[in-house]
Design a protein that fits this description.
This is NHL repeat containing protein. By secondary structure, the protein is mainly beta. It is built from no helices and 18 strands. The protein has one domain: Neuraminidase (6 Propeller), CATH 2.120.10.30. Helices cover 0% and strands 41% of the residues. It is globular, with a radius of gyration of 17 Å.
Length: 225
């Protein structure tokens, strides 16, 4: 199990059945801008062979790549962003969520929490492209986002985005920038059909969806339709 340890600026690896973590990226307790440091790391994802891990470095506005057998203090590789906070296609703006499934697509998908957009980016390219949301414009229509965080894609390249401050989950079909709401309904609440500041998203092998409903202190399961 790999854990992004936000306040310690590191990624911890726990071998199966062990309670002792090993720092595999970052320097414990040291944040910064060097290639072996993080400043507010959020999500991580892996390539299909789990040779590399890709990590959102939130306050450095970049995506970093490390070998999964890395050790603390090793330099990572910058693969997206790193040009300061911004809303141009060569920048990221507080990247939060990330998902990479190279068996399905060459693109890495990234949510810009403070840019209110979804981008796709080929790792190592000098720029990416916006595929949902309008840079630096928040809103609640089907074409806008408000602080997107968690993200997943399926084998059909449908993209599922946790639209945190809209209290909903949006699905974007391939080549469409118009979202379809599949959970939540803009208005925050604690009923079975509402969410309140959701952040994380996961699917099981049957494609049932699980949402970390942050302000309701719960995990909500939505069965596959």
């Amino acid at each position: 199990m790999y854990v992004t340890d936000y306040y310690n600026s590191r990624v911890q690896k726990f071998v199966n059945q062990s309670t002792i973590g090993q720092t595999v990226a970052g320097i414990s307790g040291s944040n910064g801008v060097s290639l072996n440091q993080f400043n507010g790391l959020r999500y991580l994802t892996f390539d299909s062979t789990e040779t590399f891990m890709y990590i959102t470095d939130f306050n450095n506005h970049r995506i970093m790549r490390y070998l999964t057998n890395s050790t603390t203090g090793n330099n990572g590789t910058l693969v997206a962003g790193g040009n300061g906070a911004g809303n141009n296609n060569n920048q990221l703006n507080s990247p939060w969520g990330i998902y990479y499934l190279p068996s399905v697509s060459n693109y890495m998908y990234i949510t810009n929490a403070n840019g209110h957009t979804l981008m796709r980016w080929i790792p190592g390219a000098s720029s990416g492209e916006f595929i949902a949301g309008i840079p630096n414009l928040l809103g609640s229509s089907s074409s806008l986002l408000n602080t997107p965080t968690g993200i997943k894609i399926d084998i059909y390249q449908n993209v599922f985005v946790v639209d945190t401050n809209n209290n909903r989950v949006q699905m974007f079909c391939p080549n469409s920038s118009i979202g379809i709401t599949i959970a939540g309904n803009i208005i925050s609440g604690s009923t079975a059909t509402q969410l309140n500041g959701p952040r994380g998203i996961a699917f099981d092998s049957s494609m049932n969806m699980y949402i970390a409903d942050y302000n309701n202190y719960r995990i909500q399961k939505f069965n596959k339709l």
